[in-house]
Amino acid sequence: MAILPIRKEGDPVLRQKAQPVPKVTKRIVKLLQDMEETMYAADGVGLAAPQVGVSERLIVVDVGDGPIHLVNPVLVAAEGSVVDVEGCLSIPGVVGYVERAQKVVVDGLDMKGRPRRVEAEDWLARALQHEIDHLDGILFIDKATGITKQEDGADST
Ligand code: ZN
């Protein structure tokens, strides 16, 4: 595995709509593994492929219960609403409050190309919504209120 450089706000790849992955190939599996390692090395709780410069629909999240890798994730259900603090590895030192669904269902494929459904609440739901936004070129600062600079603190995705 390898730690990849994380693209920062201002890099055009973060504003592109990422392409669907037609097939879970060895290249995709390696990329997901590298994204996982990069996320842990950066002390993050989530990472999307555009954040490592790849405009493809891949995410990894881990809010403390182990890593979840998803290919072509789609938000298929969402309910409730929570406003909480959020940060992003691509926008270091900045946090803000973002309204997200409290509970979501996300469908995608796992690393073996099998269908995978993730039912999530609270922080995991938030991380999934943040990462799926990245795949559509959306950054949390587009939605956040009360944006402030912070040395360290909020978990970043
Ligand atoms: Zn992010």
How would you concisely characterize the structure shown here?
With 157 residues, this protein is of the alpha+beta class.
Give structural notes.
The protein is of the alpha+beta class and 157 residues long. It has one domain (12-149): Peptide deformylase (Peptide Deformylase, Alpha-Beta Complex). The protein contains two helices and eight strands; from the N terminus they run H-E-E-E-E-E-E-E-H-E. A five-stranded antiparallel beta sheet has the order 1-2-3-6-7. Strands 4-5-8 form a three-stranded antiparallel beta sheet. The site of zinc ion has 6 residues, from helix 2.
What brief labels describe this structure?
alpha+beta, Peptide Deformylase, 3-stranded antiparallel sheet, binds zinc ion
Number of DSSP strand runs = 8
Structural class: alpha+beta
Mean pLDDT comes to: 96
Main beta-sheet annotation: 5 strands, antiparallel
Ligands: zinc ion
CATH class: Alpha Beta
Global Rg: 14 Å
DSSP strand content: 35-45%
The general outline is globular
The CATH architecture category equals: Alpha-Beta Complex
**In whole angstroms, how far apart are the ends?**
20 Å
Helix content: 10-25%
* Total number of distinct structural domains: 1
Strand order of the main beta sheet, please?
A: 1-2-3-6-7
Low-confidence parts? none
The CATH topology corresponds to Peptide Deformylase
CATH homologous superfamily annotation? Peptide deformylase
- H/E element string? HEEEEEEEHE
| Count, helices | 2
